[in-house]
Amino acid sequence: MSSIPNRTRSVRTRGLDLTALIPDYPYDYGAFLANRGSAPLFDVPESAYGTKVLVVGAGVSGLITAYELLRCGLKPVLVDASGRPGGRMNDQHVDQVGKRHHAELGAMRFPVSAKGLWHYLNKWPHARDSAPFPNPGTEAAVSTVVDFRGEQFYYEHESQEFPIPPQFQQLEDYFFGEFLEQDPLRFSDMEAAMNSGQQDVIKEIWNNLVAPDEGDSWDNGSFFESLIRHGTWTADDIQLFGQVGFGTGGWNTDFPNSFLEVLRVLYTGLDVDHQLLLNGTGLFVNYLYDSAPAIAGDEVRYWDRDTTVRSLSEQEFPSTALNQEVTHIKRGNDGRFTVRFRNTESDVTEERPYDAVVYTPHVRILDKLRYTGDETDYQSATELFDASTWEAIMYTHYMQSSKVYAAIDTPFWNKDGPGSDGERSLSVTLSDRITRGTYLLDYSGGSIPGGDGAGIFLSYTWNDDSLKYLGDGQGTEAAEKHANICLNMLREIYPDVDFDKHLVRDVDTGEPFISWTWEEKTQYLGAFKMNLPGQYRYQRRLFSQFMDGVEDRTPDGIVLAGDDISWVAGWAEGAVTTAVNAINKIALVFNPPESWPTDGPISAWDELKPAAQDPASN
């Protein structure tokens, strides 16, 4: 779901098979998961079997945490305030009789370098059905139109008849061939280290950027500032780059963010070789929530073979586990936690005890939670974390994001447009006007009958760009208004396309459009975390929280996980890897120190831990 776009230079076509070894902590989560095979990720003693662990938030991180705790023999109780599983993996749809048109309002493109995520997707044949995602400028998109300053540029992937405009190609060649190759960025060296798993090289390059022995940290500068200070582009070059990227997608919404945020995604290949899940992300989410691990061939300790995350959660909250908002967490003198819940349907409030808690939603909600209730509640909530953790929580920065979706009867853009000299009738479109990014999605080829609909994201935008849809209310009326605004603009670029002819309406609602802005959704604070310059130290503290108490053998029973806690927010891989961290920590909580697992991310901490800009923080 990240705002950072895809580049045309496919890693796969260059003979590389990158694993997203996040440079701050290049632990190979994909290899760890593969090596565990069908066995539970960690063992807990039989005396802990059936012990309740609360998992807050049913997004990808919470779902995987609960799924794996179940397999360990613990009793995960997974709750969410939204009424549905999935979090920011949000597959809504427009349904016709016999056909489903997926509207992925959150995560929609999944990099092949995200080996942790694909470990789970590959467990279920229907979940892993995929095809290359049609990012601008790529082979899957076939054709791309850039609408910039009133002029349209049409090109097709590796086409002699419709080649990429030379000024766009020059941007890409300079950015990858010169700018990123300068010392100390060393893009090719880092990519090679990622490909071969050379953790020492990854750490050496990255630590020299984050905490150099001499000079400023590259975390101190924004993306825009880094281009100005360390590049040779003119102001016009940067503006064009901001719109086009490198023939694949604009970057200007990322200009205010820390340059490290961009580098991480480029180094790890998370920006390239994306896949579209042909049966929708909702299927994957429901497998994790509603499917017994035995169906995926996974071993389970203690529980019956048909036990699921849903069944254990609904033992605690019959039929309402996904309508439970956590409003307070208090640590007791015995190390257990008392958690207050509010049923979002009935408004009934109650408290329940748990031996451990894994918290995965947007982390700044915890700051509001501190001040909800009376003074006693405030004091007990503040005691959950130390002052440095609360500081990091309070300064977490979020990116806005919005989408406007239209369900389409057929992917008509796959045919040449009449009278268009061979050009496609409609293309993936990048514009400097209100739509910004227009994506064309074809779900044909999935293994589930009737799931092969098509759709157009008339607009997909981030940061301040997405705020233009605020203030119009929500629901079908706002969706139609936003869609018509986008369609009116697109008709200027594509006057021969009869968009109305291709719209299909939902069998229940009668609507073809969905408009979604994460800023205005209950329980959300935006789309995803994206650090500003100078915020590396906050991210280091949040990511490191799973290590609290480990060194002195008193592991804390509340663990932060999820997209916010990861180094690569906006990508589901970060949700997966921080879930593994949390599961490892929970295993320590329930095992005596002499039985602590000797593999996993915690055992690699001393070797791979993120660099501290302040030596005292080590």
From TrEMBL:
Record InterPro entries = Amino_oxidase (IPR002937), FAD/NAD-bd_sf (IPR036188), Flavin_monoamine_oxidase (IPR050281)
Some GO term, biological process aspect, for this entry: which one? Answer: amino acid catabolic process
The Amine oxidase domain, residue ranges: 60-582
What are this entry's molecular-function GO terms?
L-amino-acid oxidase activity
PANTHER family tied to this protein: AMINE OXIDASE, FLAVIN MONOAMINE OXIDASE
Q: What is this protein called?
A: Amine oxidoreductase
